[in-house]
Amino acid sequence: MIRKTNIFQEIDWSVVLIFITLMLMGWFNIYAAVYDEKHKSIFDFTQRYGMQLIWIGASLLLALIIMTLDVKLFSFFSYVIYGMSIGLLILVLIIGKEVNGAKAWLAIGNFSLQPAEFAKIGTALALAKFLSQYNIKINDFQTLTPISIILIIPVALIALQPDAGSILVYTAFAFALFREGLPGIVLFFGFTLIVLLFLSLVAPQLRILIVLLVLAFSAFALITRRYKESLIGLAIYIGSVGLIWGFSLLLGSKLGYYKILAFSFFLAGFAYLIIGFFRRIPLLNTFVIFMFGAIIFTNSVDYVFHEMMEEHQQKRVNILLGLESDPLGYGYNVNQSLIAIGSGGFFGKGFLQGTQTKFNFVPEQSTDFIFCTIGEEWGFLGSIVVIGLFMYLMYRIIVISERQRSTFTRIYGYSVASIFFFHFTINIGMTIGLLPVIGIPLPFFSYGGSSLWAFTIMLFILLRLDTTRTELLK
Amino acid sequence: MNPFAERKYVIGAIYGLVGLIFIIRLFWMQVIDNSYKLSAENNSRRNVVQFPARGLILDRNGKLIVYNEAAYDLMVTPFQLKAFDTIEFCNLIGLSKTDLVLALDTAKSYSAFKSSEVVKQLSAETYARLQEKLYKYPGFYVQSRTLRKYNYNIAAHLLGYVGEVDQKIIDKNPYYKTRDYIGISGLERSYEEQLRGRKGVNIFLVDVHNRVVGSYFKGKFDTASLVGSDLTTTLDADLQKYAEYLMQKMHGSVVAIEPSTGEILAMASMPTYNPGLLVGRIRQKNFRKLLLDTLNQPLFDRAVMAKYPPGSTFKLINGMIGLQEGTLKPEYSYSCFLGYHAGGLTVGCHPHHSPLSLLGGIQNSCNAYFCNVFRNIIDNKNYESVEEAYNMWRYHVLSFGFGKKLGVDLPNELNGYIPDAGYYDRYHGKGRWKSLTIVSLSIGQGELGITPVQMANMAATIANRGYYYTPHLVKGIKGQKEIDKKYREKHFTDIDTAFYSPIIEGMSLAVKGGTATIARLPDIEVCAKTGTAQNPHGEDHSIFIAFAPRNNPKIAIAVYVENGGFGATWAGPISSLLIEKYLKDTVSRPWLEEHLLKFNKPYR
Fold first, then answer.
1. Residue B378: pLDDT over 70
2. Residue A287 has pLDDT above 60, yes or no
3. ipTM of the complex in this document
4. Could B208 and A361 be called an inter-chain contact, meaning their C-beta atoms sit closer than 8 Å?
5. Which pLDDT belongs to residue A327?
6. B428: alpha, beta or left? (left if phi > 0; alpha if psi -120 to 50)
7. Which domains does chain B have, with CATH numbers?
8. Best residue in A380, A386, A404 to probe B by mutation, most B CBs within 10 Å?
9. Phi-psi sector, A252: left (phi>0), alpha (psi -120 to 50), beta
10. How far apart are CA A371 and CA A368, in angstroms?
11. What's the distance, CA A326 to chain centroid?
12. Neighboring chain B residues of A428 at a CB cutoff of 8 Å
């Protein structure tokens, strides 16, 4: 049974209101960020704020168009849209123009288009389409493989540009997958991975390994309560340490402590796996494989960081980890950004009164560092209003997603929420010094047509889908 | 129902957690932590300090002694630096490349955003050459300052010098900021507040390239600098110069005072140094050199810091105390057999008529006479004990301004020393000392420590017949109606005016035909007293005090020549020439000058 509904009655007006509010706030802040005495009019189209108004107008038009489109189109053409965005990503690698060392822009006349921004929509649609099939079991190999392919193709293409920020956003889909039943352990391992990544950059490998070994043995003993087996396991490990040590002495090659301990674990680990297979000890395999993975992972991080990364990339990581402080060098941006936001105080300096952003102390102030202007001119009060609006927007999107009968819309909705969440987290986290400097726009605030249009399309597809929540069963 | 519906809470919780972390972080940054606000001010506001020129220093006749010369400090703001032609730049400013690199490193480690100096006090010529090319060197700019310049090479000690403030001063006085100048010694220090003027500041807003983009609040918070007030001193530049000229080979001091006002006409401490040595970039080096000259101690301001025994000049004081206490009458006469002999103790004297009355005693500076005078004061039966009599004596002595700072407007004046009864109690034991024990005080020997300025003040007090004005160097400060009240107050001694007459008569006789005939001037009645102070450091100090004319005195003077021997040999001629120079503006006895310039006592 299909029941036609009135779009204007069913559309989620609170989201539309937030959308317009955020866009206008963004526009005023861009005006404040690049304001100069010579071009006082906010409607001056030679300036960024004038241009942004054009982008905003176009966004509203786009939103209107999307609302009038047949809702079945999105589901029906999901793969087509996905394919088109992939096509654009390939095209940009061929004919794109290079800005700051990245081939991320397609020049069309005077306008530049950033395909990576639009690729997220295509990916979200394709993912939703694939997962909303009947009888899909997310943990099946047959399911995970196509999902990985859907995700990896755009990621790989973006990596070729390269654009680290956009790649990172693709992790957002993990939330959508999690909602659809991806085991929590995957999120847990993702988290562990990040902790390990951090540790392997700041701490010596040997220390990490020792901590991991102690944790693994004691956790296994405590969780499984198989104390006897744990002791035997420990004995096996100590035995293999002795064995490897002996061999290294015999061969006359001096292995360091780290290598001896690590190799010994691999030796002992195989023994554990064999024992585990025959005696069916629960969780043993998980622990062993986790340890294998952890050791390999810390090693590869170490290798990538020291052998593959270039100096400026190493520095950026170091600054993030607080290992390096260099106010004029790579940390300059963050430092200036912190000063701008910090100097805003509780009430802020007032509209157009910001001195840090106004006089170009903050780099990229109208794009990636637009939050500085908010922080400086509107203070803590303005900052929590902006954060509050984003939090409410994401909350509304989750609410919208959850009220769908259509799996397609729900998955798409969670993808949208998570993409917003990642942009929000990485962008603001970077300006307040909690995350590394990764160029990524703040939705609806940062200057630029591509990102504004992409977020508008993304959001309004969801709103359009939402208007028919009572019509469709699927 | 979807089996994983519960997971929306997990996702929502993660979103919420991030939002919460952001809010906490922002609250910390924006509301609690203040360091970012300070950084922001420094980031975008450039305070350009307008340094006022220091006030000029003039002599009593309006002659310019100290004035200012423009100098230019080369400053750098490290984060604006771009690669530049270091060799050309070094040549421009006359600095070696290593020094430049060192200066830039220091500046960087101080602050990347705040400016530091690279080279201090470039000359006007260097600045002119540099200015044309400065546009090629972003990050560098020039700040103009003023340096002291001296018209006369005189009075280094009392003029003092100017230097940069140190951290201690900055902590104590918020007016001063790093790199400010402050008077460190002498008049520059005493009158720092008047001389320095007031700094002004222009606040500009600058962008990231340190380009000025406008004035802060349209200049509402800008302040204009105020030029320092000129200081007119009581010095007579010519007299000062002459004093230093005469004493150029000696160690010692001259202080000349106008008795009717307490104004210091000349105040020399020898050896001295060229005040220009302690200006600007060369100051550190020269200061160390002067400081290390321990033999001559040129930095030591003997006029207000050196404690000498007063020698025979002190007989005048003892005479007056005796007269005041009634233990002495001018007609009392005492015999002298080449000295004073009592109880196995002998105070030697030179051959002269005997016996002598008070006038003769002063005229011939008879030691025996004043031993008697002093013992009569101390053994006065009106007092119950020696201590009591001594304390009374000391009380009279202190009323002449001895034993404590007079309050001269110089920062480093010392007290001098007049022992109290407790000192002798400690030294000899209570009740174990009597007048004979301390009889050396009668002739100005013993434990007495008197500074030259106190000595000159004594001469002025006698000239005034019983009072003095605190000696001072300030005659007027521009924009100020009167000098400090403490320099306009009479201080009376507790000796009656009447008792001054015989003393002055004795001093006059000493010049007419006694120990001080060297000071005689044809048509001016000079009153004087010689002194020869034994000291443990070698030959006696040559001492001379004088004032002239006898009636309505215009100048009172005290001269010390360390290890000079008899008072009349060195200190006397100096006093005499200075009096003549000051009163008649000519010098009629060139042979005396020649004699003084031949001074050749080795100082070890």
1. yes
2. yes
3. 0.80
4. yes
5. 43
6. alpha
7. 46-76+84-233 (3.90.1310.10), 237-285+301-597 (3.40.710.10)
8. A380
9. left
10. 8
11. 27
12. 22
